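Researcher: Let's continue the batch. This sequence belongs to Beta-phosphoglucomutase, and it's 216 residues. Same format as the previous ones, please.
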Amino acid sequence: MTTINACLFDLDGVLVDTAKYHFIAWKQLAEELGFTFTEEDNERLKGVSRMASLDILLEIGGVKLDEETKLELASKKNAWYVDYISKMDDSEILPGALEFVKELKSQGIKVALGSASKNAMLILNNTGLTPYFDAIIDGTKTQSAKPDPEVFLLGAQELGLTPAECVVFEDAEAGVEAAIRAGMRSVGIGSTTTLGRANLVVPSLADFSFNRLKEL
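Model: Same format as before. Here are the structure tokens for Beta-phosphoglucomutase:
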């Protein structure tokens, strides 16, 4: 088995808890459109791009809109979301995440971000995580959303490594699928019910350490 030389992290739900802000903003939009959007509905949006998320939301509400209106609504939701995350600080880094990233750096393992978020830099800067990354691939650098492997392949490329040397940490089914398509090993953060295709599944990064990479 190829030696692991890099760890690539999704952002939302893996390193920081921004998922709650996405949910609040989508729920606000649904209410404005006259229907209810639940936390269960929100599970369908994990790891999905903004416009695809809006399509799912409208399908749930049975609402049909033209493309121009949809773009306006996506911008409105994003403005609400950005307002929420602008107030974030390092207290919103998920348990064990910073400790694990520091441990990787001390062991000479490269660290990269692989996120669909176009607001990743704002979040990383507000939480103080930016300096820990050797490469940052976010929604401003990619054309295709997960499960397309583009974001992770670009990360490996920027690190100068092969996909086989990389491990992906993901909390979404689409992200685990993207890692598989990229030819990378993966650790699911969450439940085996949805992340069963990952090589290993743990409840959070607080349950993971450098030594456990050997299990992959």
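Researcher: Any comment?
Model: Residues 19-85 form a domain with the DNA polymerase; domain 1 fold (CATH 1.10.150.240).
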